[in-house]
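Sequence, please.
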């Protein structure tokens, strides 16, 4: 899966003011619903929260990969958000998180979902990519950093 095929300006937000895990998930769900009329914000939020209850998606180094499955979704949707300041997200390294790369996947796409997560995690393990995302002043710069 090519990350460029997943990300778009209308689902990318830079330097969102946020102070809690719950609030960032609400913001992400709002972005998903705003840009896709077939997606219900509450359903997205419930899916993300349910996944977080199984264990934090904070993978360390200030990065989280929230994800959830949605019934009726036809294609994978990515939402990329950076926050200011970084927030407590119960990450595995106990460090605050400021980069959130969210994936919403069709309910039945188990294997594809795991491959997409692995691709995103690999891209975000590149230190130069992460530095460029953190330096971004707008959504365009975030998209460029992911290329």
């Amino acid at each position: 899966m090519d990350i460029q095929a997943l990300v778009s300006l209308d689902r990318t937000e830079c330097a969102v003011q946020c102070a809690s895990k719950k609030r960032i998930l609400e913001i992400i769900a709002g972005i998903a619903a705003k840009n896709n009329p077939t997606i219900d914000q509450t359903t997205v939020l419930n899916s993300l929260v349910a996944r977080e209850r199984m264990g934090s998606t904070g993978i360390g180094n200030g990065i989280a990969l929230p994800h959830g499955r949605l019934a009726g979704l036809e294609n994978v949707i990515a939402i990329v958000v950076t926050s200011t300041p970084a927030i407590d997200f119960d990450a595995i390294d106990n460090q605050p998180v400021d980069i959130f790369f969210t994936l919403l996947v069709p309910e039945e796409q188990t294997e594809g979902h795991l491959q997409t997560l692995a691709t995103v995690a690999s891209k975000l393990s590149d230190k130069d990519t992460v530095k460029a995302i953190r330096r971004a002043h707008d959504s365009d710069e975030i998209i460029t950093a992911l290329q």
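The first strand starts at residue 12 and ends at 17.
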